């Protein structure tokens, strides 16, 4: 069975959410706006792996605050993913992108659903409905 664990970070800095644009030639959801994170390495814990992924993709150091969702899906390449979603705080807003993402932007949570892929709308709804940004301070 081809399964992997993954983690994604809804990273906030001064009230704004970090979004990354996927490469246009990516096998999984090319060209969408999403949040940082990705598949974990064998034996890697989710928080350790999430911090590594965020560092690799953005150059940012983060504080992982709370987990707030779990998603299960099968990628276009047939790999089944269990994805943990975390609320995180950045220790700065200077992003240095890897080759995985050609663009980034910081957006207000109220405008995030206009920018981010609909796959992540439920996370935006949960953040707003339950006032989770209070955990970022």
What report would you give on this structure?
- The chain has 137 residues and is an alpha+beta fold.
- The chain has a single domain (3-135), classed as Nucleoside Triphosphate Pyrophosphohydrolase (Alpha-Beta Complex), CATH 3.90.79.
- It is built from three helices and seven strands, in the order ββββαβββαα.
- The protein has helices at 46-58, 112-115, 121-129, and strands at 3-13, 16-21, 33-34, 37-39, 62-74, 80-90, 103-108.
- Strands 1, 2, 3, 4, 5, 6 and 7 form a seven-stranded mixed sheet that branches.
- A hairpin with a 2-residue loop joins strand 1 (3-13) and strand 2 (16-21).
- The longest helix has 13 residues, at 46-58.
- The mean pLDDT is 96.
Gross morphology: globular
Main pleated-sheet profile = 7 strands, mixed
**Model regions low in confidence, pLDDT < 50 over at least 5 residues:** none
Percent helix range? 10-25%
Give the distance, in angstroms, between the N- and C-terminal Cα atoms: 41 Å
Write the CATH architecture name: Alpha-Beta Complex
Number of strands: 7
Overall number of domains = 1
Averaged pLDDT? 96
Q: With helices defined by DSSP (H or I, 4 residues minimum), what is the helix count?
A: 3
Structural class: alpha+beta
């Amino acid at each position: 069975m081809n399964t992997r664990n993954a983690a994604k970070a809804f990273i906030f800095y001064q009230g704004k959410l970090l979004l990354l644009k996927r490469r246009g030639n990516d096998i999984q959801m090319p060209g969408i706006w999403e949040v940082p994170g990705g598949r974990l390495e064998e034996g890697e814990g989710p928080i350790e792996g999430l911090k590594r992924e965020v560092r690799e993709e953005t150059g940012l150091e983060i504080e992982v605050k709370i987990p707030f969702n779990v998603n299960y899906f099968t990628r276009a390449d047939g790999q089944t993913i269990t994805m943990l979603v975390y609320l995180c705080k950045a220790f700065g807003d200077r992003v240095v992108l890897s080759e995985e993402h050609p663009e980034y932007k910081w957006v207000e949570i109220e405008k995030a659903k206009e920018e981010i892929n609909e796959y992540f709308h439920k996370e935006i709804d949960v953040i707003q409905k339950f006032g989770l940004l209070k955990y970022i301070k």
